[in-house]
């Protein structure tokens, strides 16, 4: 059995009396790509924000490498939540320089991560002139600066064209071989079925399935819809 780099137990986030995430228990195997799937509004982003320390859990526990999560664990976690935090008037290098300076990291790391995400040839081009795919890859480069063991990507293919999706998929698939575990959230099944190793499906903040990825698209779609329907039926009572 694979070692679990991160687990959550009954993780819950409540806003104004409503559970955005409801007793979520995830098990993320080390050196895999884990797909956190669910419709829009299912609670995926909220769950990832708790794992990255952006939001505080209302209840439950997060464990990193078998121990209770602590803020110091963020030194081994990279994240791209929602949209890439970029300065449009700066180049790719300059954007990353801002982050390395803030984090106290060596400047040599900038060229390393630009090479990883294939942005070494952008030169003096400003980030505002980048395509959506380039912006996403630059955001991932920023998340890689601290040599993370766990990389969290929230809907990274949003707004990308088919070529951009394919390029990003290949990049994400390369990370486990580099010792980087990836948690990838999405609501679009076709974009993740060739990317992830394990999946968790949530709806209305609740985990409806966790385990192996079904063998074909039809089976994945059927499983996804079953989880969403069961969750809707529970909400109706």
Automatic annotation (TrEMBL):
One of its GO terms (molecular function) is ATP hydrolysis activity. Its EC number is 3.6.3.-. The keyword ATP-binding applies. Pfam families: ABC_tran (PF00005). Keywords: ATP-binding, Hydrolase, Nucleotide-binding, Transport. SUPFAM superfamilies: P-loop containing nucleoside triphosphate hydrolases. It is an enzyme of class 3 (hydrolase). Residues 6-229 form the ABC transporter domain. Belongs to the ABC transporter superfamily. PANTHER family: ABC TRANSPORTER, ATP-BINDING PROTEIN. This is Lantibiotic protection ABC transporter ATP-binding protein. It comes from Acetobacterium wieringae.
């Amino acid at each position: 059995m694979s070692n679990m780099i991160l687990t959550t137990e009954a993780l819950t986030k409540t806003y104004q009396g409503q559970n955005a995430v409801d007793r979520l228990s995830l098990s993320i195997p080390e050196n895999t790509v884990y797909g956190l799937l669910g419709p829009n509004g299912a609670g995926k982003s909220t769950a990832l924000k708790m794992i990255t320390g952006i939001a505080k859990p209302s209840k439950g526990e997060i464990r990193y490498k078998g121990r209770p999560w602590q803020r110091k664990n963020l030194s081994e976690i990279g994240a791209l939540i929602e949209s890439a935090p970029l300065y449009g008037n700066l180049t790719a290098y300059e954007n990353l320089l801002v982050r390395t300076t803030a984090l106290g990291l060596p400047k040599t790391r900038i060229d390393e991560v630009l090479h990883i995400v294939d942005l070494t040839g952008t030169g003096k081009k400003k980030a505002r002139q980048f395509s959506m795919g380039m912006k996403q890859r630059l955001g991932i480069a920023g998340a890689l600066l601290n040599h993370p063991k766990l990389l969290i990507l929230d809907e990274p293919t949003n707004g990308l064209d088919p070529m951009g999706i394919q390029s990003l998929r290949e990049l994400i698939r390369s990370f486990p071989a580099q010792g980087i575990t990836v948690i990838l959230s999405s609501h679009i099944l076709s974009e993740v079925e060739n990317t992830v190793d394990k999946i968790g499906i949530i709806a209305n903040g609740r985990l409806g399935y966790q385990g192996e990825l079904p063998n074909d698209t039809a089976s994945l779609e059927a499983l996804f819809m079953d989880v969403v329907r069961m969750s809707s039926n529970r909400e109706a009572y």
